[in-house]
Design goal:
By secondary structure, the chain is of the alpha/beta class. The chain contains 7 helices and 7 strands, in the order E-H-E-H-E-H-E-H-E-H-E-H-H-E. Helix 4 links the parallel strand 4 and strand 5. The structure holds NADP nicotinamide-adenine-dinucleotide phosphate.
């Protein structure tokens, strides 16, 4: 895949899918701007990428903070000299906020915080990245959706609403930015082994809920790896996907292709 030399910004990149994407993109020759609220983790990732011979910089950014988003795009201009790829990866699930997560117990603040990071953040990043992306010959925006962009889950009213919204933000931006030759796509993972999922399991009434054959719906009978999602993001950023635009792309091991659990197929899975 040809992403060598692309100026590649990843939000929420200190850990998980963002870190895997920044690492993979840099290994393929992209020049990466790592951004996160976790400065220690983000800077450590930059050090790792540089030690491996890659080009990477770090900039703090809470994507729900408009001034910090503006500063992030200034940092892209200053450190990368522009921007080709905006990877809107940062996201949270309400379970990590330690507040009520049912409709009865959730505060308006919790709902708005999740929407602010997962949906308003990508909108603001796209808005302030636009002047830089307009100058690129290979511009694209890649948004983090979820299987929650398609289907509802228990106790995910804020997360699911934000991920449903990101699917339509993707399509609407693809339309509005087409005259500028900026492609806009979205990837929708199933359950991927990251800290977000660890937190979700820890907060769950049943620690096995996501990882037992009785509940797992991935037809590839295991959790996904961050590297597998990173490969899709790099493909969506590359010239090889030049005719892919406005898609909301499932990468879920087949989870939403059917209605059932792998137990019904007699599969044990590799958990
Ligand atoms: P993760 O491991 O929790 O990593 C997310 C990163 O974003 C963390 O470094 C986190 O920092 C950072 N972050 C949190 N709030 C932020 C903010 N306001 N501004 C900037 N960065 C912020 O998450 P992940 O599992 O890799 O998920 C990445 C994306 O994929 C998310 O949008 C998620 O919804 C989506 N996704 C993940 C899965 C999955 O199974 N993992 C499935 C579907 C979709 P702190 O750790 O300091 O909070």
């Amino acid at each position: 895949m040809s992403i060598a030399g692309l100026k590649f910004l990843v939000t929420g990149a200190a850990t998980g899918i963002g870190a895997a994407t920044a690492t993979l993109a840099a290994s393929k020759g992209a020049h990466v701007l790592v951004s996160d609220v976790n400065d220690e983790g983000g800077q450590a990732l930059v050090d790792e990428i540089r030690e491996a011979g890659g080009v990477a910089h770090y900039q703090h950014c809470d994507v729900s903070n408009e001034e910090q988003v503006q500063a992030l795009m200034q940092a892209a201009a200053d450190t990368l000299g522009g921007l080709d790829v905006l990877h809107n990866n940062a996201g949270i699930h309400e379970t990590i906020l330690g507040e009520g997560i049912t409709l009865e117990t959730m505060s308006r603040e919790t709902f708005e915080k999740v929407m602010g990071i997962n949906l308003v953040g990508p909108f603001m990043c796209a808005k302030y990245a636009l002047p830089l992306l307009k100058q690129s010959d290979n511009a694209s925006i890649i948004n983090a959706g979820s299987t929650g962009s398609f289907s509802a889950y228990e106790h995910s009213v804020a997360y699911g609403s934000s991920k449903g919204g990101i699917a339509m933000l993707t399509k609407n931006l693809a339309v509005d930015l087409a005259p500028h030759r900026i492609r806009v796509n979205c990837y929708c993972p199933g359950t991927i082994k990251t800290q977000m999922v660890e937190n979700f399991i820890a907060a769950s009434h049943d620690a096995e809920i996501l990882v037992s054959p009785k509940t797992l719906t991935h037809l590839v009978p295991r959790l996904g790896e961050t590297r597998e999602v990173a490969e899709l993001v790099c493909f969506l950023a590359s010239e090889q996907s030049s005719f892919v635009n406005g898609v909301v792309w499932l990468i879920d091991g087949g989870s939403l292709a059917w209605r059932g659990t792998i137990d019904a197929l007699g599969m044990k899975g590799e958990m």
